[in-house]
Amino acid sequence: VRRAFAIAAALVLTACAGDAALPSEITGQAVEVSAPATTVPPQCSSDEAAESAVRSFEPLAELPAPGQMPSGSKMAEIQDRGRLIAGVSGDTLLFGARNSLTGQIEGFDIDMINQIATAIFGPDDVQSHIEYRVITYADRLPSLESGAVDIVAHTMTINCNRWLRINFSSEYFTAGQKVLVKKGSGITDITQLADQGLTVCAPEGSTNIDEVRNGEEQYDGLVVIGKPDISDCLVAMQQGEADATTGDDTVLAGFAAQDPNTEVVGDAFTSEPYGLGFNKDDIDLVQFANAVIAQIDADGTWADMYQRWLLDTGALPGGAPPAPPVPDYTRQR
Amino acid sequence: MVPLTRSAGRVAGTTGGWFRRIVRVRSGDSPTKLTLATALTVLCALALSIGGWYSIDRRESAIDDAAAAAQQLIRVQDVRVLVVQADSIASNAYLEDGQESRDQREQYDDRITSASSRLVEVSNAATGGQVATLEAVSAQLATYVGLVEQARSNNRQGFPVGSAYQRQARVVAESLVAALRSVEQNARTQVNDSMQRAHRASWLLVVTAFLLLAVLVLGSLWLAARWRRLVNVPLAIAGVITLLVLTAGIGVNGRAVSQASTAVRGALTSADLLAQARAAAFDARSNEALTLIARGNGQAYEAQWTLSSDVVGRALTESCERFDRGCDALEAYGDYTAEHVTMRAIEDEEGDWESAVDTVTDPGGALSVDFVAFATSAENDLALESQDATTAFSDAVGALGTLRVLVVLAGLLGAVLALVGYGQRLREYR
Description:
heterodimer; B: disordered N terminus
């Protein structure tokens, strides 16, 4: 009996030995991605804000020949590198959007970049000398401050607070803030949206959202939602999350072209002067860009660009391109 | 005071009654003792039948539960792989400027259709907390498909808003995949819990068999001493049968749980690792395309690529080293990783986005070829390991049904033999 018990006990122990268990799921080692700075952006004093924001630096007296940039300049650094790194929009139809048929980014802002690159490298195969980096509205200033890009052409409004962080070229386009609503909604301007307590969407980090969030009393009553990019606002409208989108008339015209159930209504309630953005240290590149802008204003290239992107597409009304914005070069170093 | 005294008296009286009966049995006549011994042995034999049946049934049920949870794990992982595959195809197709090939479209549709039908199977087999999660997953899959369709249709018309829909689709896909991973972890926990139950389930068979054996041996010894018979044949046969059942029971039971444990530690663990590697690899491939779609601003997607590739490497290394499975897939993924690093340098260092896109989207290029080699090898190995795990679980419970019948019969036979064995002695007093 004792032996039988011992054998059985041994068998039981053998049967129970070695618990089997599946290990937990494998998780990867996280890689740190530098998060954008969350510090409060600097604000202009009332005296600074009273001055015209569109003042930029004096253009170079004479543009250097392509491929012969002055030694030690930012342009020479770009020339030596072999490419201009440009922060642009990838989804702002007419200004900076990827053409899904060709895969190329194109638009008014992209043509501005082409002009700067042509002035540095010459017209031959200029696209091979440009590296586009598609950035969101909120990334425009940080990418210049960090030096990730040389230039930003991204429907960016020149204003006093931004001058504290980056440099701007002279004004190259004048837009105005409007609203995009659903056709048949009966809304004719932004005050009606505010009166009815409707939801309006705008991109975070834009002057458009600052205007309706912190602007005048006429916007009281608006429910404002912010999105990373303005194209997310069109999605929000199509999905019923927002009743309207506010942005520059130029951008909204591109949205109306993408969604025939929407329309741009009302007069512009702000003036949005666009400038090319540069790092705070790159004043020589700003002066170079201002000379290029003056040149394309004078030789009719600017008018051709306006015709191609804004008139031929039917985005803006008018039979002929207007005069380019008048530059103001009174900013001192 | 009076009731207490009366109650104490009743207790004392009852105790005294039991004591007198035991003394009477001990000093009682032989027929009474034989009757009691017969009854005790029959009870122990019936206890073996019932206890043994219950014990084996519990073990079989626990192993079946472990097998079902393992199947559920494999099914859920299959759904996850199909979803990330579909997302990877959609992301790569978006990168090709709306010029989505018919092959890509068919592959995407096939993955989504398969994911939907597999999700129905998973939902039908869901238990407890899995049900609500899987309902949410079904809704998210429908949302995901809708967003991809919006992205695709806008992209085809040249509307840049398609990229916003693609971003949203990605967010939904990530949420959906996270939910499926939680169901997978739940299934792993169920496998482990069921295996612990299977290990604990055999004690009742052992205890009842030992009890019967002890009663039979003591009874035989008593009969031999009291009636001067060397062996009571029926009781001896009952003892031998009980010993055989005990040995066979422990052996078969042990073998069943051992086979199930081997399936869990071996084929199932390997299948789990390979499935994790496949899901993470397709996620990496998706992030590769999204990094390019973000064009120069896709650091977060590239970081996610690195994270997923780390999972692929660790899962395949473990599977290769422990189970000799996934070794070819590991090598192919290493080749793909080298091609990916070269491609990233084309965009990050040379600034040539177009060439980087061409490298990723060219189906005959080294990057795509290496990835397909990885995917095919991992899929084949996964199919083998999944099949091995399923077969091992099935084999594990195969003999338990027969054993259950044998134990019940052995108990009943023991009871009959006890009646016969003690009956021979009882007849001498009639």
